[in-house]
Automatic annotation (TrEMBL):
GO molecular function, one term: FAD binding
Annotated protein name in UniProt: FAD-binding domain-containing protein
SUPFAM superfamilies listed in its UniProt record: FAD/NAD(P)-binding domain
Assigned keywords, A-Z: Monooxygenase, Oxidoreductase
Naturally occurring in which organism (per UniProt): Eucalyptus grandis
Keyword Aminoacyl-tRNA synthetase attributed: no
Keyword Repeat included in the entry's annotation: no
Pfam families, alphabetized: FAD_binding_3 (PF01494)
Family matches, as InterPro entries: FAD-bd, FAD/NAD-bd_sf, MOase
Family statement drawn from the similarity comment of this UniProt entry: Belongs to the 3-hydroxybenzoate 6-hydroxylase family.
Amino acid sequence: MEEVVIVGAGIAGLATAVALKKVGVQALVLERSEGLRATGAALSLFPNAWRALDALGVSERLTSLYPPFSKGYVTDVKTKAIQEVRYDASKGSGGEQRTVHRKILLEALAEELPPNTIRFSSKLTSIDTLVEQGSSICILALEDGTIIKSKVVIGCDGVHSRIARWLGLSEPVDSGRSAIRGIAVYPQGHGLNHEVQQFVDVSKRGGFIPLNDKEVYWFLACKAPPKGADMGGDPNLLVREVADNLAKDFSPLYLDIVGHSDFSTLTWAPFMFRYPWDVVLGNLTRANFTVAGDAMHPMTPDLGQGGCLALEDAVVLGRHIGSSVSQGGELETRDVGFALERYVRERRWRAAMLIAASYLSGWVQQDGSSWWMKFLRDVVFYKFLLGKAVSATRYDCGKLC
């Protein structure tokens, strides 16, 4: 019998395991891959994420590696007009924005866990429940024949979550857009200012952010799947498609960065999201099962909040599940269902609003070239709405006892 089983060793899964450890609950993390996955190369973490990482006790490891950024520039590819965007970062990790390697973040979280917490190559095949002594018990079957009983199961198994499907949540939908991402490496140093640079064109948007003195994270979002996507995201074809077609009118600096890509970091993926009303009205918990991270709220990356929200989820889950620990140090099965309901009430509306805001942000910035779309993007969105959207990143998910 396990106290808690977490399905998926991504950001949400590892962060939740760390949060539970801090409140005195031992978790087992099941991961279907053979090791930690770093798909996506890097991600931006905003103030809400750093507050969560502070609560988890791992922020200092990352802030020493990645400098913050406080401003950026958006260039209209057609008109060459440039707008400055300020992020109003305050001093200290709780108010700054930094872009970090996804793998380094995962490793920092994993190092906080006791040995053997993560069980790799563990593919889930079936889910069931039974009642023992008046309490609901979760039953998980693995591909190797292992049967695991647990008081709680938390699905952190990504966009196509099996736990979410078992709860009855609708499948995520394709936004009609996708992105190519990678990291460029300059062994002698790139010499760039630590600023966000974006380039906006008809139905596509690209950009780059220096990670450190030698590495630059870059991305390109577009409507049609790029050439090479149907071949499993062949890195040679992806880079050629970006340089020769999708971004051929972008700045020479952007094309140079793409040309310096480390092919092992290149990925292509469609933008998937769950309808906000499905998060508001759907079953996010049942029979001591719940979901977190992309399993609960898959969203487009236009506001950079997918990973940030997953870290928030972990802290909130840890706080509520920790309230169900008895004086003897055991998780009270009868109480944990109420703890999960409180967690869902706290997260449901925030997740739904950020899904909607992220989708609208991407639509405004990328979808169309008519005069009114340009007005909506350049005047309404960048000058007024973006600031309100960024204010949502100052959210504080609280502390762990």
